[in-house]
């Protein structure tokens, strides 16, 4: 789009110029590039709303772009090891400084001029041309959307709007068909333990929905939550239970949900996802394995991946700065791989740790309910003590293995023995099962989670 065409578009950054000893500089370069692209996307969307006459939406997006610009300009990039790539730093920073000045002027005009002012109605003819008049390239390429004439608009408008409507209908069908889970059936009582995580979710989503008058200003709830920890401990179940308890529409996102072989399709799906969620609020957008979608930006990543991250961060900022009743919840086993811009937006970061003895006891009782067994309370305690460092999924696998042993002991006779004649499970079956079902999470992994939690997270 002509309005925010950047000086840095004239050449591409050499993506592999950084040497191994300059990885930090290369990382900062990519962060600056990411913020540059985020700001450009937000300001282009703001301009489109401005031209359409949606002044409130335009101001909101202009201010979002400004906040992204401020963050981008705060990044310091060292020249060490970057070589020819370093010249892009000045170009990107120059773009953002230029945009900042012009957007501040436009926001000031929009907020101070009367609603019936022609400047507000037609920014491309008055304010924006004046604001960019000292930039020859931008001015020469400026072609206002309405300047092509009534006849041209009459010939192409209906056909163009029809194509856009069909495209939106197709994207909406994809979101509603593959992503939307309208009625998650899991409740808090179905999840053993995790009292701290449940309390945080209660304060963040459910209570604000019940008492909106109390959760305002500094008490306004965060819109981003990260559930992280070893696999198999109930992160996805927690998100679904949250949607059930809050009576919210649940959008279950994974990398495959937003992957497409078509150029630009992923960004459109992200935009439609947030649009549909806003229409169906209260809504929870749950991103499983969020590190696979929003990992740290790097010099070697594919252009499509970078555009997807850019679009997601822009939409995410729209949720954080708006009044919609929407929450973005991410789950990951690799929090250290998340991009720092994503980590900052996920304000609440809760560690879903390995189940303690009380939680393992409750899980065992739940798994064994309805299953014939000769386990005493002492036997259950022995199993609880023997399963330290077992995750919830490890315990489930252990119980399944123990439950199959009485059938395995029958040998060939299993084909003709009545079901009621199969002996109940006993503690010996668990002793055998413990030899084959081992913990799936190593001590080194747990230590890495502990280090990350000490730096960024919150214990549940």
TrEMBL record:
Residues 1-29, 137-156 are annotated as: Disordered. Residues 14-27 have a biased composition (Low complexity). Residues 1-11 have a biased composition (Polar residues). Residues 221-356 form the AAA+ ATPase domain. One of its GO terms (cellular component) is microtubule. Belongs to the AAA ATPase family. This is microtubule-severing ATPase. It comes from Coccomyxa viridis.
